[in-house]
Amino acid sequence: MKLQWRTLASGFGLERLVGLGVLAVALLIKIVDPGVLESLQLRTFDVYQTIKPRLQTEPLPVTIVDIDEKSLVALGQWPWPRTLVADLVARLMADGAAAVAFDILFPESDRLSPARFAETVPGLSSSTRDELIGKPGNDEVLAKVLGSSRVVLGQSGLSGATAGEARAILAQTPVATIGGDPRPYLPSYQGLLRNLDVLENAAAGRGLFSMRNEFDGIVRRVPLVSSIEGQLHPGLAVELLRVATGQNAFAIKSNAAGIASVVVGGVEVPTDRTGRIWVNYSHHDPTRFVSVAQVLAGELPKGRLAGHLILVGTSAVGLGDLRATPLADAMPGVEIHAQLLETILTKSWLERPQYALGAEIVAAVVLSLLMIALMPVLGAIRALSLGALLAAITVAVSWHMFSRHRMLFDALYPLGTSFGVFVAVTFVEYRKEERSRQSIRNAFSRYLDPAMVEQLASQPGRLSLGGETRELTILFSDVRGFTRISESYRDDPQGLTNLMNRFLTPISRAIIESRGTIDKYMGDAVMAFWNAPLDDPDHAANACSASLEIVRRLAVLNADRAAEAKNEGRNHIPIEIGIGLNTGPCVVGNMGSDIRFDYSVLGDSVNLASRLEGQTKTYAVAILIGADTAAKVADRFALVEVDLIRVKGKTLPSRCFALLGDRNLRSSSDFNEAAREIGELIAAYRQRRWNDANAAVANAQAARKMGLGGLLSLYETRVAEFSVTPPPEAWDGAFDAVQK
Q1: CA 109 to CA 121: how far, in whole Å?
Q2: Which residues, in sequence order, are CB contacts of 623 under 8 Å at separation 6+?
Q3: Potential cystine with 700: which of 171, 610, 662, 677 (Cβ 3.0-4.6 Å)?
């Protein structure tokens, strides 16, 4: 079975198999449909609406009669006497309103009715009390006005009915069902909060103003119909349209997938499978609102409300009817109903077709298969360019369907799936590149110093196996981010070879010119040592000089390459290097077998030099040297101690130093000030004086000028962590490097 898998992977391509696996996982996630996918999808649709909201090209016959702050100041706190509400309805109808709907409830008797007033106010005379009891109640006054008007009272669905709400539900608006029973698909409530019977019996209609927010609290879809205790209840907007158009009923059309549409007032409104409509929002429009105070004061021009659908509701902050929408963080609930009415009247509703999910899955599969098929052929850069083009087309199609046809198609899922496939295939290809690079390192890592060749020619006996123990200074250098550089030469391997030759040549010359021996090249890495096979009493200083010269020559090379890239109109990726130096006893000689051997070195000092090179990234410096090297050259080079470090594989900590420059820099006032600042920082750090260490970081301006900002940031992070979680009492001030 294992052999069959390897055969399949090698024939079809491991990267393609991994890509198909990622695609299969993405399809499974889409089928399971976790909330995170829906959240991203809805956010995408919100962005579309934000970019292109519904435009009001002409005034629409929808008006909100607003219980606003001005009305509360003029008429007193809510609730108002029902006689005042009756006066409001009468004035609206007298001005020619087509119909009126209340986005508020009247569930309890008016406490200001004459009879209730007589019962609650002490000290009234018998005649006055009898006179008040004999007057009609405020609720009856309102009911009389409702009975002669086209008014829809609002109701609210409840998730659970209480004893006080357990009254029998009055007969609701007749509804015709076409295509099957819609109730299994509709939003349902366990109870109904409604108005007084005397009011509902007199009203021309009753509609639900309940709106269930999406899981993120935003109102995007509003149900046109809901189910309560098996009865079908229209939404407030549907019932208002029915009453205004003089219809006796509305209709619900269903199919095998669920609800398809709701027909009201001669208009068929498409919905999602649960009977909800996507509201096509416009920006807040103050002309949509009329203050109740203006209506009751007779301040509106005569006929201002003629033929209008009136929604009575509140925008007052204290009455708490504010909702979040795609276009506003706080929109009055009554305005959402108004925007829903406008959406229906202009037939500008948003629609997510029932085939949208299938189309999105097909798009994801097609884009992903193109990535899987073409990436191994085109390479990552060209495939990424192709992917960007396909992504742009996908987004353009999705936007076109929204802006021109008001249809909602999610472009994010196909793009996310195909990008995931791209990343997976790229990762596998990078792994193959790494293995290939390692093979190249193994094949071309054996180079000898010309001085060694001369010595071996004169003393052939040195070719025998074995070695001697000598004090050496060892250098390790490596390029940072070599994978990114090699990727830029994916289609030009010869160019990468030329670049490595241009890079390794000045490094090699700097080492050889300072009497060093090149042990080996490991791809972009170099290992060298001093004081073997030729004696070099000043090997530590020569190694430091070579390291500084490597950094200088690398800067010249980067400048030349930057100029070339600018002339050729291509991107320039500079080469950055890390160098580790260490001095100590090593075994040096010919090592291997009697048929193949290398002149190389072994020992703990070699390992430490390698670890120091790896830590240059941690301390954000180009050159790190060990304590033994520093002891030999401290009077001739600009050195700054950076840490006491316990590298991986060692139990005892070692001091390490940043090599910043030569004797001239060491004698400068700027360097000496920087060295003093770093010294104070490290002393405070090792003595657990965290506040002093923070102050030292903040005041280390000279160190920053010396390019030690990364080192300061490192200590700032450590101090912040230790301030919260101090190190153990046995802490010796050393940092444990867990990575090589």
Answers
A1: 17
A2: 547, 548, 551, 578, 579, 580, 581, 616, 658, 659, 660
A3: 677
